[in-house]
Amino acid sequence: MNKRLYTIFLISVFLLLPGFSTAAERIYNVLFVQSYAPETPWHNDLVRGLKDGFGESGLKVNITTEFLDANFWTYQSEKLIMRRFCERARERGTDLIVTVSDEAFHTLLTCGDSLALQLPVVFFNIKYPEGSLIDSLPNVCGYTANPDFGELLRQASRLFPTRTEVVCISDNSLLSSKGKDDFMNEWEGFVEEHPEYTVTFYNSQTDTTNKIIASTCYPRNTHKTLIIAPKWSSFMSFIGRNSKAPFFSCENLALTNGAFGAYDADSYASAHEVGRTAADVLRGKSPSEVGIIESPLKFMYDFKQLVFFKVDPKQASAIGGTIINEPYMEKYRMLYILLYSSILALLVFLVVWLYRINRRESRRRIHAQTRLLIQNRLVAQRDEFDNVFHSIRDGVITYDTDFRIHFTNRSLLKMLHLPKDEAARPYEGLPAGSIFKIYNNGKEILRPMLKQVVTEESSVVIPENSFMQEVHSGSYFPVSGEVVPIRAHGKITGMALSARNISDEEMQKRFFRMAVDESSIYPWQYNIRTGLFTFPAGFLTRFGFAENKTTISRDEMDRMVHPDDQESAYEVFNRALAGLSQSTRMSFRQLSGDGNYEWWEYRTSVLSGLTTDTPYSILGVCQSIQRYKTTEEELTAARDKALQADKLKSAFLANMS
Q1: 331 Cβ partners below 8 Å, 6+ apart?
Q2: I need a surface site. Which of 6, 51, 75, 330 has the fewest CB within 10 A?
Q3: Cβ(541)–Cβ(555) under 8 Å?
Q4: What is the pLDDT of residues 528-563, one digit of tens each?
Q5: CB 34 within 8 A of CB 68
Q6: Residue 170: enclosing H or E segment and its boundaries?
Q7: Count of CB atoms situated within 10 Å of the CB of 279
Q8: In whole angstroms, what is the distance from residue 501 CA to residue 18 CA?
Q9: Cβ proximity of 41 and 302 under 8 Å
Q10: Residue 277: which residues within 8 A CB-CB, separation 6 or more?
Q11: Contacts by 482-485, CB closer than 8 A, 24 or more apart
């Protein structure tokens, strides 16, 4: 039995849970009836305030707004329209009705539809409530906004102390008549305080329109006028927009429609409070428990009207007024100033930043183009330099300051019998000594020479009797050349070594020396520009000169020639200097160091200069022919002696005969 009851309990719980969940998430349908058209200035504030009030209460509602447009329709038409509202609300399953202003509430209760008696009704912003009617309906509650024309007159007198002529414009409608009666009751108390004020009444339906316009819209008639409108209408909007006197009303509907100021409840605040109250009613609170609550009133002024009538907005705010329709520029002046200043500063910053970015980008682009141009030029120059160095007969190799190979020309590769790689610089980056070494007296001297160039910042000549050896094959040969520094901006950036294989030169030099030494033939040179003879070292010692002397002048040369031979030798040598003979031979006696004359033979070979008659230099060889002359003299003497003997023999035979 207990198990059965427990099972039934669980089933009941599971069946009720969806219902509880649905109740918790229920969306209520609310009908919101406004007395006027959607163009009402406060329409958006009313809807927003009502939604926010429900939202703060935590209820989810679906608000349907209907517009009665009471200023346009007659009372009978209004009741017909309201019945249609009720029919649509019944179809939607409406849970609560909210009305704003007198027309909507009164028409809802008198239209003849029973929906207003079946659902809770919350009203607000009612000026003249019917207390007996409301008290008889337990489903009705709300907020009133009772007009206070006395306070409105006192506020108007504060703003316009010189305007003492009050004009009250009404019509024949029920609300306008009630408003006029209320104004007259308040006027009696106001006049007792301000006896200088006068009042004039106009009825827009009984008085002529021209009369009302003349008293409100002509400057000559309105400079001392204040206008009070107990009930705002379309005609009031027309007069207000053209009036030269300030309009005052106790309906916020008048604001932005031509009224200078209104003393009424705030639309958003009232709607917000109604939303909270309606939420309490939907939760189960009795409307009769809520009752009728009077909404607080406040003064509101149209900013454009303040400007038109030259009233300082600060003055209106100082005496308890709220400014509406104020441009954001005026309402948030400081904020706009700060905003514009910030935007201006930001724009200036952006302009400067973009300018700098553009300049930086331009400089970067120019630098990139310049670098590319420089690189292209450097590559072109490098290729040009490479071609120049490749055309040099001597081998050339360059190093950087870290003693790494930078460039090798083809002559060096050919000299070392290395393959000519297609790459522009096949051995670039290799350390010094990786492809060849230089030895002198058995010691490797390549790196020491490079270091000496960097240290002394001057060129170094490869010593004599040095050899260059190719590393891989081991072949070597005698070499001559030098290492010179490469400078840029006053600093050494590398070294260049030029070298030449002197195997053939050395062989020819040694053969020449051997031939000269064996034949006693001595080379000599005459420098036409300096007038000096140059002889091998030690040669001039034979003629009494010092050991280290190698050059003598022509005068010194002439003084060594025997006086009898000077004329012929001088003539032959002058012919060579004049370019008249390319090759000559002359013999003459020269004074030796021991004071005796010795026969010498000089042979000349002329190197032509720019023209054939201006030799560049005279080269020649000389050889001592003293022994030949001695032999010649001995043979001549023997010949003469034989001839003398022959003559003597002939004479003897003749004598004998």
Answers
A1: 323
A2: 6
A3: no
A4: 888 899 988 888 888 888 888 889 998 888 888 999
A5: yes
A6: strand 165-170
A7: 22
A8: 111
A9: no
A10: 53, 122, 141, 142, 143, 290
A11: 483/449, 483/450, 483/452, 483/453, 483/459, 484/453, 484/459, 485/453, 485/454, 485/457, 485/458, 485/459
- pLDDT grade, residue 365 (50/70/90)? confident
Residue 295 carries which DSSP code? Answer: P
Per-residue pLDDT averaged across 232-249, rounded?
88
Quickly count: other Cβ atoms within 10 Å of residue 383's Cβ: 11
The helix (run of H) or strand (run of E) holding residue 141 is strand 140-144
Measured from the Cβ of residue 280, the count of other Cβ atoms closer than 10 Å reads 17
Instruction: Read off the tokens for 479.
Output: 């070499």
Which amino acid, residue 629? K
Residue 580 has pLDDT above 50, yes or no: yes
CB 225 within 8 A of CB 167: yes
d(CA 129, CA 105): 9
Altogether, the residues listed in the chain come to a count of 657
Give strand pairing partners of 31: 64, 97
238 pLDDT above the threshold of 80: yes
d(CA 550, CA 537): 6
Give the Cα separation of 323 and 171 in Å (integer): 28
Count of other CB atoms within 10 angstroms of residue 557: 19
What sign has the CA pseudo-torsion 83, 88, 94, 97?
negative
Other C-beta atoms closer than 10 Å to the C-beta of 166 total 25
Residue 168: CA count within 13 A, CB half-sphere: 22
- Contact yes or no for 435/413 (Cβ under 8 A): no
Grouping H, G, I as helix, E, B as strand and the rest as coil, residue 525 is strand
Strand order in the sheet with 292-294: 60-67, 27-34, 96-100, 121-126, 140-144, 292-294
Q: Are 226 and 156 spatial neighbours (Cβ–Cβ below 8 Å)? A: yes
Residue 657 CA to residue 316 CA, distance in Å, equals 188
What is the rounded end-to-end Cα distance, in angstroms, of the chain? 210
Question: Which residues are paired to 500 by β-bridges?
Answer: 480
* Three-state DSSP class for residue 445: coil
Tokens of 309: 């009538």
> How is 573-613 classified by DSSP, letter by letter?
HHHHHTTS-SEEEEEEEEE-TTS-EEEEEEEEEEEEEEETT
Cross-strand pairs, 28:
61
Instruction: Determine the residue type at 1.
Output: M
What does the block give as tokens for 573?
């040598």
Nearest to 190 by CA among 246, 228, 216: 228
Distance (Å) of CA 341 to CA 237, 348, 350, 488: 40, 10, 14, 55
Residue 531 has, within 13 A of its CA and on its CB side, a CA count of 7
pTM of the model: 0.52
In the block, residue with structure tokens 């400014």: 323
Q: Which amino acid is at 589?
A: R
Query: What secondary structure letter does DSSP report for 463?
Result: P
Phi-psi region of 344 (alpha: psi -120 to 50; beta: other; left: phi over 0): alpha
Looking at residue 254, what DSSP letter applies?
G
Nearest alpha carbon to residue 300 among 320, 328, 314, 271: 320
> Is the distance from CB of 122 to CB of 96 less than 8 angstroms?
yes
Tokens 């004598």, located at residue? 655
β-partners of residue 67 are 34
Q: CB within 8 A of 367, min separation 6: which ones?
A: none
In the three-class reduction of DSSP (H, G, I as helix; E, B as strand; rest coil), residue 6 is classed as: helix
Q: Name the β-bridge partners of 32.
A: 65, 98
Q: Each residue of 174-188: pLDDT tens digit? A: 888 899 999 999 999
Supply the mean pLDDT for the chain: 85
